[in-house]
Each structure stands twice: as structure tokens, then as C-alpha cells.
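Q: I have 207 residues here and want to know how they pack in 3D. Can you give me a structure?
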Amino acid sequence: AQYITDKGVVDSWEREFRLSPASMSKEAFSSLNVEIGVFGSGNASEALEAAGLKLRKLPKLSPEALQGLQLVVLEKNTVEPGSDQSGVLREFSRNGGRTLILEQKHSLFDNAELKLKKVQKVFPRASKHPLLAQISPQGLEFWGDDAYALNDGDCNLTHFMYQKDDGKAMTPILDGGEGTFGTGDLELCALFESQVGDGLMIACQVE
């Protein structure tokens, strides 16, 4: 893309796109022959169903609702502060369950606070992790079209990020933080996994 004025091209940028038919997505998920529990408003269900996955929509998170499931997806902004969701899902994971937690405003984890942090680029911390397969560093930055002309831009990858712990409970996969000229930090995390008992919890704040 190019930004052109009467003086000519003043800015330009490139972005890699991958287009694939739905059949390829279904082929990729064909080995995942399990029923997936989905909790939320349904904003992720359409994409999961288009990939040919079998879903069980959960009216609530409880041991009874999760009975017989191996994988649960929490859709955007479904974590309720002060609820028993954390205990229910940790017990689910301890027994071998897998949980995927999509973008939230409230943390499900006692040791990983969510902080307001809008960033336009995140960095691979575990570049060999399977979740980052076929994703280049260039694919983890500037997801919108205009980072500067709008008051808030439209290129943010995150709005809230997790504060990293001491490394005992989480394995960061994508991180980011506060950047300045010459200094800064990567104390926040946009994607991490946490081993809980025989299971696994993955939390993703990337939009």
C-alpha cells in the first residue's frame, strides 16, 4: 500500500496475506475429532464451526457442564470477576482438560494480572512453539491500515496484556510492553501457556 500526495509517494508499506479455501482449514482440524465446549456470546463459534469442528455451547461453566469434554474455549470478555470460573477450569485442567482463553478484560489467573496496554507489535518469546508455526515476526505487527492518522490508530494487536509472573506458572509465547527511545521492557505477555496438573491452559490477548 502507498500513501500518495501531490508531492508523490510519502509513505508505503507491505503486508503478507494468506488466502486459503475452507477445505484447507477443515483438513487441518480433521484430526481434532473431539467435541469442543464453547462458553460465551458466540463470537468465535462461527469460525470454529466453519472449520468443521463439533461444538457444545455452554450456558455456564460448571463441573456438570464440562462433563465429558477435553477442550473448552472461553470467548471474548467472558471472565467474571469474583466468580468460581477459575476454580472450575483449574480442576478441569488438573484432570487433563485443555482450555483456550481468548481476549479478556479480567484475568482468570491469580498470579497474572491483566493490565491495560495497547501495543502495535508483539515479540515471539518462544519462537519454536507450535502455536507460532508459519507466523513470521512481520505478521505480529501493525494489523490495521493507519497507525498514526487516527486518534487511537487502528493497528493495535492488544488492548490488555498479562503481567508476567516469576516463570513458575506461565510460559510466555508472545510478549511486549512499554517502549521508549533507547529503553523499555517486555514485562507483559500477549500469549502464554500454563501447565495445570495433567492439562493445559492457553491465554491469548491478541485480537
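Q: Anything worth noting?
A: The chain has a mean pLDDT of 85. The CA atoms of residues 103 and 205 lie 4 Å apart.
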